[in-house]
Design a protein that fits this description.
The complex is a heterotrimer of chains A (608), B (177) and C (102).
Chain A: H1 4-23, H2 25-52, E1 55-65, E2 68-76, H3 78-101, H4 111-129, H5 133-151, H6 158-189, H7 194-199, H8 206-224, H9 232-235, H10 241-250, H11 254-262, H12 264-268, H13 271-294, H14 298-318, H15 322-349, H16 368-382, H17 388-403, H18 405-430, H19 449-464, H20 469-475, H21 484-505, H22 512-518, H23 520-527, H24 532-579, H25 586-607
Antiparallel strand pairs in A: 1-2
Chain B: H1 2-23, H2 27-48, H3 51-75, H4 89-114, H5 123-129, H6 131-142, H7 144-165
Helix pairs in contact in B: 1-2, 2-3, 5-6
Chain C: H1 6-26, H2 30-55, H3 59-89, H4 94-97
The chains are: A mainly alpha (608), B mainly alpha (177), C mainly alpha (102).
């Protein structure tokens, strides 16, 4: 019965993919929604069963290699089943939303979009529920492929296709490292099955284990957009907003965090590698939030905030706190999807023509529900009591302070910046002068209810999920307590960030434009992501293109074409030479006769 | 000694005449050179002691065949040939080394082949009977079949030459004979 | 009396034969080509007779007889062909005769 969880999305993918053209776009969308909804329904009893006793569902054995057989199977324990339910729920809500968002594209083969979404859901569930590394890798690759297909969905725009390509290539680099990690794990443990690996963790060579762990983490770096494989994530916003909400905020990029949490027993046995995880996570968190303060694209700011929050999750994993990282992942899924959906609502209201926060303004009175949901999400992201973000972020800050005071200050600084930039975006878009009048004729209306209902559900989730903190952490096998002083200080810091944004952007205490001009170098550095993107494009991509060009002009043009052209020139030349054999003149025939004769005689002589 | 001198005389004149055959531009000179060559070759035959062959050479070649050539060259109305059109220069230059190589090879072949033949069976007969009778007796016993065949070939050639060489019949304007 | 050695006959024969072949290739007029062919045939005759003189056999002379007879036939037929060509095409040299383009 539990197999239905992955079977429903798979079936809806196949049905929509094969028959979507005949079915039409709206029926395809409904089939997709039903697929994910049924998966969600089936995941609930599976979770309930798994909470008390984890169980495995072996599915299929496919290749038998000597003394090890490659299998496919599902494993349900609290971690995987709760995450699976989360993924299915968010997916269902976003699918419903997308019916409204993609409305004006229906009739243009939008069934492909839904097929890709179902495929993505199936692959994501494979990652979450698989009981061995091979199935996880299959899902890993599948979500990478789905990401490429969906980012490049508007394939007529060059920017979208380039971003899809960049995403896929960077993912691939991560996947390559991940694959080597799997090889190392198999070499060490002789098996890819998670349970068998967990049993044997202490019995293997720690240095090699540390290397394997680092390689596996490399895969997570690529998948979750951490430094240094991060430049694809902001550019992935070229895809439609439901894609950004589902893949690049709640689920796919969270797969990296999930993978580390899933394989945590291995990671714990290699403490040096955990330090690397923490360093990269922290670095990305800071760097992404600095970049977010300087960007002005509506979705990119939220994308950077995703990168930063994922960095915080990796930081938490690195300092040894699996449960707070996973809980933050859960709450983050809710409020980040909510933020994206609200941004998508704004974009939809302007018929998909806006991209920058400075193109709109004063939307508070035109789109009140969107305003409310956006600010719910923003408050949750900033970590204000009693929203869910407060609970999860507080756990992380608490763990940080336990490790060292400096680390705690660091995480607090990152949350200050988080509060600042998200409220900057909110205040610019919803308050202030109505800049959109300069560009658009008609007034923005509130979005249709098919889009608003999922947003409201997510808003409720962002509010309420935080209260399950104790239960969640307990289920995962940990015990945490909230320190009151840390809680109060984190709220104060978040309020300070909000207050700064309010003062600058609403009250205009400091004029934002003048401030921007005076701090231009700093802003530009942040905006260009500390020039990493430029670096990658110029040096790595540019170098490769140069190499290709050289190979083309030398290898292809000169050598290969030269050979091919040369062969026809040679054939013509030889033809001209041999043509002389048959001139029709007796004299020449005689000449050739005599040449042949002397040749034969010579041969006979030599043979003697 | 006498033999040797006669051989040298006839041989060198034969070579000179052959050069004339190859190199002259005027066709009539070529025919005359050919005639001279044939006579010299007959002389070489006599020096070698083959009287019958030498006599037949003179009769057939130097008389009949030379007359053929002269007939064709003068009775058929060729156009006036220019001096410089008479040879292919380029091919000549190309052929020269090949012919030279051929010479060397043939010399080698002869020297290798001659040494393995039987020798001296009928010298006594020649001394007693004279050359012609000896040739005749060998011809009509050992090579009788070949002799008959050659006469057949002669017959066929005669008929063929007549057919090829005669004028076509007149045809009417519309192509019927 | 000193006999003429075999090699002398052979050398003479080869020289004449080479000249004959050379003439066949070099000469332009059809009739002169045939005349060079006669020259080559005669050279072969000399070779036969010379070998005969050295070896004391009669076979070479018989073969030389056959060659003379056949050469006569060949000259007749060849000249007949040349006359026919001339009647038909009004050409007299081998390069004008050919229809193939280089």
């Amino acid at each position: 019965m539990e197999i239905g969880i992955i079977l429903f999305p798979l079936i809806s993918f196949l049905v929509v993919g094969l028959f979507g053209r005949k079915l039409g776009d709206l029926p395809s969308a409904i089939i997709t929604v039903l697929g994910s909804f049924f998966a969600f329904l089936l995941s609930i009893p599976a979770s309930i069963k798994a909470l008390s006793s984890p169980f495995s569902v072996p599915l299929y054995e496919f290749i038998s290699l000597g003394n090890y057989t490659l299998t496919l199977g599902l494993y349900f324990d609290p971690l995987s089943s709760l995450t699976a339910s989360l993924v299915c729920l968010i997916a269902t809500l976003i699918f419903i939303y997308s019916i409204g968002y993609m409305q004006n594209l229906f009739g243009q083969w939008t069934y492909k979009f839904y097929a890709y979404l179902s495929f993505f859901l199936f692959s994501m569930l494979m990652i979450v529920l698989s009981d061995n590394l091979l199935g996880m890798f299959f899902g890993w690759e599948g979500v990478g492929l789905a990401s490429y297909l969906l980012i490049g969905y508007f394939h007529q725009q060059k920017y979208a296709t380039n971003s899809a390509f960049e995403a896929f290539v960077m993912n691939r680099i991560g996947d390559w490292l991940y694959l080597f990690g799997i090889f190392a794990v198999f070499y060490l443990f002789g098996s890819l099955n998670l349970l068998e690996i967990f049993e044997k963790v202490d019995a293997v060579d720690p240095k090699l284990l540390g290397l394997a762990v680092l390689l596996l983490f490399g895969g997570a770096v690529g998948k979750s957009g951490q430094f240094p494989l991060h430049t694809w994530l902001p550019n992935a916003m070229a895809g439609p907003t439901p894609v950004s909400a589902l893949l690049h905020s709640s689920t796919m990029v969270a797969a990296g965090v999930y993978m580390v949490a899933r394989l945590y027993p291995i990671f714990e046995s290699a403490p040096q590698s955990l330090k690397v995880v923490a360093v990269i996570g922290g670095l990305t968190a800071l760097f992404a939030s600095l970049s977010a303060t300087s960007h002005t694209d509506i979705k990119k700011i939220i994308a950077f905030s995703t990168m930063s929050q994922l960095g915080l999750m990796f930081l938490a994993l690195g300092i040894g706190d699996k449960s707070s990282a996973m809980f933050h992942l859960t709450t983050h899924a809710f409020f980040k999807a909510l933020l994206f959906l609200s941004a998508g609502s704004i974009i939809h209201a302007f018929h998909h023509h806006v991209h920058e926060i400075y193109e709109v303004g004063g939307l508070k009175k035109y789109m009140p529900i969107t305003y409310a949901t956006f600010f719910v999400g923003a408050l949750a992201l900033a970590g204000i009591f009693p929203f869910s973000g407060f609970w999860s972020k507080d756990l992380i800050i608490g763990s940080a302070y336990e490790v060292s005071f400096g680390l705690g200050v660091f995480v607090s600084f990152v949350s200050f910046l988080t509060a600042y930039y998200i409220f900057r975006e909110g205040f610019v878009m919803f308050y202030g002068e109505e800049r959109h009048r300069e560009h658009f004729e008609e007034e923005p209306k509130e979005s249709p209810s098919i889009m608003l209902i999922p947003m409201l559900i997510l808003a409720i989730g962002s509010l309420v999920v935080g209260f399950f903190e104790g239960w969640y952490v307990g289920v995962l096998g940990d015990k945490k307590e909230i320190h009151l002083d840390i809680a109060i200080s984190s709220v104060v810091i978040a309020l300070a960030g909000i207050g700064l944004a309010y003062l600058v952007f609403v009250k205009r205490v400091l004029d934002p434009e003048k401030l921007y001009q005076s701090l231009k170098p700093m802003h530009t550095t942040f905006k260009e992501q500390f020039f990493t993107e430029k670096l990658y494009h110029k040096i790595l991509a540019g170098g490769y293109m140069l190499y290709s060009k050289v190979l083309y002009t030398v290898g292809e043009r000169q050598l290969i074409d030269g050979l091919v052209n040369g062969s026809y020139l040679m054939a013509g030349f030889l033809g001209r030479v041999f043509r002389n054999l048959q001139q029709g003149r007796v004299n020449l025939y005689l000449l050739f006769l005599s040449v042949g004769l002397s040749g034969l005689v010579l041969l006979t002589l030599l043979w003697r | 000694m006498m033999q040797w001198l006669a051989f040298l005389f006839f041989g060198s004149l034969a070579i000179l005449s052959a050069l004339g055959v190859v190199l002259f531009s005027n066709v009539v000179y070529v025919i005359l050179s050919l005639l001279s060559t044939l006579v010299m070759v007959a002389g070489v035959f006599f020096v070698a002691g083959a009287e019958l062959v030498g006599a037949l050479q003179l009769l057939i070649y130097a008389v009949a065949i030379a007359v053929f050539y002269i007939l064709v060259l003068t009775a058929v109305p060729w156009e006036k040939a220019l001096k410089k059109d008479s040879h292919y220069r380029v091919e000549g230059v190309l052929t020269f080394p090949i012919v030279l190589a051929f010479y060397l090879e043939i010399i080698l072949v002869f020297l290798l082949g001659v040494s393995v033949s039987p020798k001296g069976e009928i010298r006594e007969y020649i001394k007693s009977l004279g050359n012609t009778e000896v040739v005749g007796s060998v011809l009509f016993s050992k090579y009788f079949f070949a002799f008959e065949l050659v006469s057949l070939v002669l017959l066929v050639g005669m008929i063929g030459a007549v057919i090829i060489g005669r004028k076509e019949e007149k045809t009417y304007e519309d192509g019927s004979p | 009396m000193k006999m003429v050695p075999l090699e002398a006959y052979l050398i003479l024969s080869i020289i004449l034969f080479g000249l004959g072949v050379f003439g066949m290739i070099v000469r332009r007029n059809l009739v002169t080509i045939l005349m060079s062919a006669e020259l080559a045939l005669n050279a072969v005759n000399i070779a036969f007779v010379g070998a005969d003189a050295y070896l004391g056999l009669a076979d070479g002379q018989i073969f030389a007889l056959f060659i003379i007879a056949l050469a006569a036939v060949e000259a007749a037929v060849g000249l007949g062909i040349i006359v026919a060509i001339f009647r038909l095409r009004k050409v007299e040299s081998s390069d004008e005769l050919t229809d193939m383009r280089g």
